[in-house]
Amino acid sequence: MWPHPVLDDLADLIPSPHHPVALGAAAYAAGATPEEAALAAAYHAITGPATAAVRLLGLDPVAVHALLADLTPDLTAVAAQACLPTSGGWESLPAYSSPALDLLAEQHAQAEVRLFIS
Amino acid sequence: MGAHHDDHHHAPDGRGRALRLGIGGPVGSGKTALVAALCRTLGPSLSLGVVTNDIYTTEDADFLRRAGVLDQERILAVETGCCPHTAIRDDIAANLDAVETLEHRFGPLDLVIVESGGDNLTATFSRGLADRQIFVLDVSGGDKVPRKGGPGVTTADLLVVNKTDLAPMVGADLGVMARDAAKVRGERPVLFTSIRQEPTAATVAEWVSDQVHAWSHTHASPVS
């Protein structure tokens, strides 16, 4: 699976790609379908903030994970919706939150109170 | 809690159960000594349980049992086997089980103290485990620690600065510590103690006692 020419090409063209581009390229290199890439993106969008909330805000991890489990059907629905016009395949996968997430991550790195950078 | 998940843990509102007090702070700052002091001072008037956390041993529980400050069976030890903060924040199951075991065996209790293993300045208790938390520093760790902040120092319900008797020996300026703590904590209280010189930790015990009474007032069992 690794290395993969798509990843090499991406690294040459854009050394620090936005998150959706990096995720899409990695998913493609791993042999995933566009639907699976969309599901991974949706999953990451909710689990990232959820685990951060457990660490930064001290929220009850049992309650947070129950909430994530309850959101499973929504993830599947969002991923399916993202792939509706997928006659175009990978190219037509949307990334509505980009580059907002990247900008928020840069702000977080400069925040006075933070626990980790990833 | 999600509608489709049965969970054996108590409802998050905490009605009808004891106040759960987390005590955290760096290694060697005096957490276990504070727990012993609280047991000594509050034991006669409150029904207590204690859960200790160590990495691979039951050192703190053994110390408390030897100190004879509380009925030995009311002290349970959790071996975290990893970073102590994981067991008080990210995966609280082992500690919750210990707390609920104490409540089941000896309840109704007034107060359950959960002592974290010694950790760094970022360690805090999950709200799912502790209703109130105390963060314990000591002056020999350096008088600049309050200025460094971190969630324990800034957000704990009470900050305790212990071993004030050592301040002259280590060149720590208590005034600086008080000023820096106030700057990052706002209105949240700070107490200076020397548990070695004053083994009842009277000021901290008074704060805890106030918390217990306020909790029992607002979280009494619903009338059934």
Automatic annotation (TrEMBL), chain B:
GO terms for biological process: urea catabolic process. GTP binds at residues 25-32. Residues 21-191 form the CobW/HypB/UreG nucleotide-binding domain. InterPro entries: CobW/HypB/UreG_nucleotide-bd (IPR003495), P-loop_NTPase (IPR027417), UreG (IPR004400). It comes from the Bacteria. It is found in: Cytoplasm. Its main location: cytoplasm. GO terms for cellular component: cytoplasm. Pfam families: cobW. Keywords: Chaperone, Cytoplasm, GTP-binding, Nickel insertion, Nucleotide-binding. GO terms for molecular function: GTP binding; GTPase activity; nickel cation binding. Facilitates the functional incorporation of the urease nickel metallocenter. This process requires GTP hydrolysis, probably effectuated by UreG. Belongs to the SIMIBI class G3E GTPase family. UreG subfamily. Homodimer. UreD, UreF and UreG form a complex that acts as a GTP-hydrolysis-dependent molecular chaperone, activating the urease apoprotein by helping to assemble the nickel containing metallocenter of UreC. The UreE protein probably delivers the nickel. This is Urease accessory protein UreG. It comes from [Actinomadura] parvosata subsp. kistnae. The gene is ureG.
